[in-house]
Amino acid sequence: MKQTTNSILMIRPVAFRMNEQTAVNNYYQKVLDGLLPATVNAKAQQEFDAFVEKLTAAGVDVTVVDDTLNPDTPDSIFPNNWISFHENGDVALYPMFAENRRHERREDILDILEDKGFVINNIVDYTSAEEDGFFLEGTGSLLLDRANAKAYCALSPRADEELFIEFCEDFDYAPVIFEAFQTVDSERKLIYHTNVMMCLGETFAVICADCIDDKKERKMVLDNLKENGKEIILITEAQMNNFAGNMLEIRGANDKRYLVMSAAAHQSLTPKQIEQLEKHAEILSSSLDTIEACGGGSARCMMAEIFLPRN
C-alpha cells in the first residue's frame, strides 16, 4: 500500500464562517470581530484559490468541487472529515459530531470522481452511528499508516473507540489508541482531532508527544512509529497551536514528495525542524490565516486524499 498520493479532493467554500456547532470542542476557532460574513468568506476563498494554485503548480492532481449554498455547511472546506478513499476502491463515509456538518456528505461528489476515471467499488457507511451519538471524523480522527497497516487515533468526543476498532477491522489496520490533550484556560482538554497533533509521512512522523499526558501511552505511540522506521520530529504545544501538526505529505509532478502546511505552521518551525523535514520532502506552504482562525482547521483538513484505482 502506498502512503502518499498525487490526487486530492478539495471543496471550495461559498458560505464559510465560524461554525458555532463545532466551537464547543474545537478550541482553535476564533471569532474575527468586526468582519462581515461575506468578508470572511471572500478571504477564505482567496486563501483557498491561492492554495490550490500552488498545489497545481507543483503537479498535484486537485479535484475542486464547489460547495452549495443550501444546505448550510460552513465547514465544507474540510472534506477529509466525512470521507476517505482507499486503494481497493472502497470509500468510507463517517459520522460527524456537528449536525450541520452531516450535510457535507454529497453523493454527487462520488459521481464527479467517477467521471474523472476513479473507480469506486464499495461504500462503507458508518454514518448511522450518529443516531446513537457516536462519531469518528474521517482522517481527522484517524491517522492512517497505509504502508504499515496501522491506524493512530486520539480518542475524543469526535473519535469513538468502538467505532475506531470497527473501522480497523473492516479495513485491516492495527489500532493504536491513546488520548491527547491541550491546555485551554489552564485546564487539560482532549484534542478534538488526531491530525492536529501529528502527521504521518512515508519516512517520518511529526508529533506533539507532550500532548499525550500518559507516559505509557506516549511511549507506546512513539515505539509504534520507531518500529516502522519513521524519523520522529517533535513539535511543541505552541507549534501545534499554529497548526504545525496539521500537515500532509503528497506527491507532485514526477512523484516528487511535498509536505504541505500553512504559512503559520511553516513560520512556527525552527531551522533544525525544517532541516529535518526537508530531508524527506520539499515544504509547500500557503497562507490560510482566515480559514485557520474561523474554521479551526488547516492545510491537512482541506485535502481529502484519493487513493482509488483509475480506469
From TrEMBL:
It comes from the Bacteria. It holds the Pfam family DDAH_eukar. This is Arginine deiminase-related protein. NCBIfam families: citrull_CtlX. PANTHER family: AMIDINOTRANSFERASE. InterPro entries: Amdntrnsf_FN0238. SUPFAM superfamilies: Pentein. It comes from Flavobacterium algoritolerans.
